[in-house]
């Protein structure tokens, strides 16, 4: 196997500093305006970057760099990861020429390969922040190769394994965790039904208790109660967590979680279980999503995951949490890790697509702007910069946000649970939406090449689209964020106490004043950026609370009032998320000692903040920005594009994604498409 050079090579520096590359056109064959493009695509060389790319990569990845590089290597070394030579380089490419069945089997084989190499050691049996961060790092890298592989692992370890860890007690931990880690059992997670997804409390599967035999009886009472979309259920899973209403002594105690076996060790479906396939999907076809019906399936009493509530042998319902709302909330806890991984993975996909599109835009030319001049590099068009560089800055900002989210998650304490729930909901939605937008822009920025599956960006759209739906639909999550902010507001006002937590402390201070005339230096200052994002959040929260209370005063229920105030709720959710992201950026930036890194991060932060002002019409609608200031912001964004342009390549190199995990269009795309590369 050819040794892969993981160093991401970059364009020679002179290309970066001469916007239209007029000076060097006679020397560089790539710059000739020959009608026949007989140039060799640029032999890329490491730029004398103004900042330390390795240091930036460390900051971006945040943790477990050695583990990440080890895993990249492990994958590239195996034929299972589909290494292919294109244009003189090796790429590990997704399985787009295989049937759904082949993709599913290949996903399982890859898992076995990683298992054999000890990748999952300690995933469920080792505890503490370090072990959890390693797990996250491994999942980041796996997802950079293939979403199906990451999701298949996520379902088994985070959903099935996480449910046993969080909802189960010692007896479940002893019985299941080691076997899960070793893949002796293959787990899945049956929460969603055909008739109920976001509204988990509405599920219709019913479980009753038979005190004569000491068993629970799980039943699918109607077609809409069939479990749907269950990852792993169609082909491989042997066991599942079943979410069901628990009916004890004719009283519904609400949603609870049980362990049920669905296949034997030979893969035969168990008695009284029916399983069907969800069929081909727009992406993620390496995951076998299935549907499950339970026909009065009997399971031992001990299979109730009983950390929240239990049923005694004689059929008494026992729970320390008396409030059904709180009980239900406790059952959703494992979903938080899913949201964390989605938020993080969304950012890595944005990084892949930006690395590819920006590298292409530094090697692809189109039209000349002088009669006999060379054609212009795509990234030298200000309009192309405007399309990609704000997304690059946002991806950097959200990278800090994702790292922050991971950190608070692995260091969670009971006091942090609420914050983690709200921040993970907001970031999961915002980062996955950002990813889809970035993928589309990068696909278009690669022109026709973006349509080639081997170039990854277009393919990633189908693969990652589902991120806005599973583990909490994005719109529903954002509603929960606004609801939680409203609850904080009401509680603070009712107690007449200062705001504390969720970053709302700024509400205790006087409202910030935005200068009537914005200069460049003001717009680039952390104070201004922070002030205006806080101003938007506080004003929207006040408006939202007023509208709800007005509607209630007019006779609407609290729930009706909330539903009808959806516009403000949406605006507020976005305001919370954008401001929280900026905060994570500022925290990362201000603790840095390295001046060149700080400078470039300053540009990226300003781009993030200003483009946020530009994109949300709330700033003009509610007057946080005057028309004149809005025009100044727009000009400043264009200026920042020009200033970031020379650093574009170093900035994507800093993502630390090995060349093999990018795509041919990001490198020597002429050679990758040469006649000699065609299989004759
Ligand atoms: C590929 C894939 C894998 C999956 N894997 C699993 C798995 O392993 N296990 C599992 O249990 N589930 C899984 N799911 C299910 C997933 O979690 C659900 O699809 C998700 O929760 C959304 O539910 P739903 O599809 O019923 O959509 P709905 O909840 O019906 O939502 C449909 C639309 O209605 C909107 N909507 C819903 N409620 C409101 C409201 N109150 N106000 C305004 N708008 C609203 C939503 O924003 C959404 O746009 C998977 C799904 C997919 C597609």
UniProtKB/TrEMBL annotation:
Primary localization: other
Acyl-CoA oxidase/dehydrogenase middle domain: residues covered: 188-297
Any GO molecular function: acyl-CoA oxidase activity
Binding-site list for FAD: 192, 231
Keyword entries, A-Z: FAD, Fatty acid metabolism, Flavoprotein, Lipid metabolism, Oxidoreductase, Peroxisome
Gene3D superfamilies linked to this entry: Butyryl-CoA Dehydrogenase, subunit A, domain 2 (2.40.110.10), Butyryl-CoA Dehydrogenase, subunit A, domain 3 (1.20.140.10)
Domain Acyl-CoA oxidase C-alpha1: 335-486
Entry-linked PANTHER family: ACYL-COENZYME A OXIDASE-LIKE PROTEIN (PTHR10909:SF352), ELECTRON TRANSPORT OXIDOREDUCTASE (PTHR10909)
Protein family membership: Belongs to the acyl-CoA oxidase family.
Name of the molecule in the record: Acyl-coenzyme A oxidase
Organism: Cinchona calisaya
